[in-house]
Each structure stands twice: as structure tokens, then as C-alpha cells.
Specification:
The protein has a domain of 221 residues. With 346 residues, the protein is mostly beta strands. The chain is built from 4 helices and 14 strands. The chain starts with a helix and ends in a 30-residue tail after the last strand. A hairpin with a 4-residue loop joins strand 7 and strand 8.
């Protein structure tokens, strides 16, 4: 026993016979919920869905083309394939085009960094026949480039953006699938002049939508707004959901609400997560699963504030605006961009 006590003292541990004092716990910090008076949550979430429909490769690609339209011979330098600059480390590609430079034009416009892009378009068939014309198009933009003049940022994109369009056109109908993936930072007048998101954003968003024969939406990712605020309060959203619209929906599909969730973050970093769990039809032999109100197909979601359910705050939405032309596709001719008007590339 003496040997055990000696070892305990040497190790700084209390002897077995000693009484240990219980640790003193401080009082828990009360998390005061944010004031939601005057906040129209259904409208705020609807505005977020509208941003989802508008945040894709298209505005970034348009800003990229504006940057090329303002190019002068020698500023910036144009390349076939990758820029021939040792300090630029991008994936090895050969079939695209690029610009890379740090130069100043006569009017003070400065190009810095690089942009690399690819685009392709194939079409076959006659739209005036029963089978119609089928067109498939893709484009890709990789960049870490900026265009500025004086103190004004005209174009900046750091990241990757790509999209694809499959379009079938007949004399009587049009069916399409549009997919976009964009990850990076985008700012500048060329991109966001007369835009619903002035000031730009940081984004990592995937979206796939279809139309013509079936209205569907699949999207996941996040968006942070540099200047614009949803409902003058929320600076970010995160989303992961799937949705079937009225057109082309199956008998077991819920067309009044998506499956998944969307969250809004206010400027105090409080998250408001709206979860949709519509009950889908199934085998009549399946056991009953009564989990109301969570599984109703009624356009209503369950709201969680900072991870805690808010049973007194019902958020119900009408999603008809999504299928009324909001989820559209680019023009097929927008994928046919060439360097014909930009002079000879080195």
C-alpha cells in the first residue's frame, strides 16, 4: 500500500483515500433567438429559389466575352491551348483558347491573370421533321483573371464554370436538359451590370433542370452574396433538393414541394433551414407510415433555426413561379463563340 501511495504522489495523482472536488460548471449561455418581426420567410425562401435559377455559368461566360471584346492587339496576349507562361499552373489542355497577361491598354484598362476556355456545338436533323433537330453543346471556363480600369473592377473570375445543353426541336415542340456547375468567385461590371446580384458572389453550385416534356430541378451547393441581401437580411444560402414540376410528373411524384432542404443565413451567422419531406406513393402493401405533418405533400416545410425546430413558425410556399419560364436554358447559338473577331492568336 505504501508503494502505491508513493507512486501516486510522484505522478501528481491524488491518493485513493483523498476526496476529489467536483468541477465548477458555469451557467449555460442563453442563445437569444433573432427577432423575426416583419420578416416574410416564405417570400425570402422564394427569392432564394429565384437566385438559384439565375446563378449558373451564363453570367460568368457573358462577362468573359465582354472582357475579350475589350481586348486590344497585344493586351492581353491570346493563346491556342494553355497559356505559354511558366507561372500559370492549370490542367494540361490543348483544344481550348486562353488569354494571359499583365498589361495596360491606352485607356488605362488593366488585364491581369489568365482565362482558359473551351466550347463545342454539334447539331443534326431538321426541326421541320417529326424527329426534329438535336443539338448538344458544352462550354468550360477556368480562370484567375481580372480586368479593371481606374478604381473600377470590370471583370473578375477565379474558379471553374461549365455547362451543357441538350436540345431537341421540332415544328411543334422543344425539349431540353440544361446542366451547370460553377465554383469560385465572380465580381465586376461586365458580369453583374443590371444583375439581381450586384457586387458579385462566392459560389459552389450545381444545377440540372429539364423542360418541354418534363419539368424537373435538381440542385445542391451554396452561395455567398458580397453586397445583395435576400429580404434585406440574408447574405447566403445552402441547398440540396430535387423537384418534379407538374409537366411530366408521375402518379407518385409530389409536385407541390421538393424533397430536400434549403437554408438561409443572416448577417449574424444564424441559419434558417427549411426541410421538405413529402411522402411519396408506393406499394399498397407497404406498412402505413404516419409522420404528419412532416410528410404531407402540401408545399409546407419544417423550419429549423440554428438546428432547433420551430413548430410555431409555419413556412408554406407556392412554387408555380419555378415552372413559369424561370428555369430556362441558354440559346444554343451562344455556344458557337469563336476567335474570328479577336485577331490572330500567337
Amino acid at each position: 500500500m505504501r508503494r502505491v501511495l508513493t507512486l501516486a504522489l510522484l505522478l501528481g495523482c491524488p491518493a485513493p483515500e483523498e476526496e476529489r472536488e467536483a468541477p465548477v460548471l458555469s451557467d449555460p449561455v442563453e442563445l437569444v433567438p433573432p427577432d423575426l418581426e416583419g420578416v416574410d420567410l416564405p417570400q425570402a425562401f422564394a427569392d432564394a429559389f429565384r437566385l438559384i435559377a439565375g446563378v449558373d455559368t451564363r453570367p460568368v461566360w457573358a462577362g468573359h466575352l465582354d472582357a475579350l471584346d475589350h481586348a486590344e492587339p497585344g493586351c492581353p496576349d491570346l493563346y491556342l491551348g494553355n497559356p505559354d507562361v511558366d507561372s500559370i499552373d492549370i490542367r494540361t489542355r490543348a483544344k481550348g483558347r486562353s488569354w494571359a497577361d499583365y498589361c495596360q491598354q491606352s485607356d488605362g484598362t488593366i488585364y491581369s491573370g489568365y482565362s482558359y476556355w473551351e466550347n463545342s456545338l454539334t447539331a443534326m436533323g431538321d426541326p421541320n421533321t417529326t424527329l426534329g433537330r438535336t443539338a448538344d453543346a458544352t462550354r468550360l471556363l477556368l480562370g484567375d483573371g481580372a480586368v479593371s480600369r481606374d478604381d473600377e473592377m470590370l471583370y473578375e473570375f477565379v474558379g471553374e464554370a461549365e455547362d451543357s445543353l441538350s436540345l431537341t426541336t421540332t415544328s411543334e415542340s422543344e425539349t431540353w436538359t440544361y446542366t451547370s456547375r460553377i465554383a469560385g468567385v465572380a465580381t465586376g461590371q461586365f458580369i453583374f451590370d443590371d444583375s439581381p446580384t450586384p457586387g458579385g458572389f462566392r459560389v459552389g453550385l450545381y444545377r440540372r433542370s429539364t423542360g418541354g416534356d418534363a419539368d424537373t430541378l435538381e440542385t445542391r451547393g451554396n452561395l455567398y452574396l458580397f453586397e445583395h441581401r435576400i429580404a434585406d437580411r440574408f447574405d447566403s444560402f445552402a441547398v440540396d433538393l430535387e423537384f418534379s414540376g407538374p409537366l411530366g410528373a408521375g402518379p407518385d411524384d409530389c409536385t407541390l414541394e421538393p424533397t430536400g432542404w434549403i437554408g438561409l443565413r443572416d448577417e449574424d451567422a444564424f441559419w434558417y433551414d427549411l426541410v421538405f419531406e413529402p411522402r411519396r406513393g408506393g406499394d399498397p402493401q407497404d406498412p402505413e407510415y404516419d409522420n404528419e405533418p412532416y410528410t404531407g405533400c402540401d408545399g409546407c416545410g419544417t423550419l429549423y433555426l440554428r438546428g432547433l425546430e420551430q413548430p410555431t413558425l409555419e413556412v408554406c410556399m407556392d412554387f408555380d413561379f419555378l415552372w413559369d419560364g424561370l428555369l430556362d436554358h441558354p440559346r444554343i447559338q451562344d455556344y458557337a463563340f469563336t476567335l474570328r473577331n479577336l485577331g490572330e492568336a500567337p
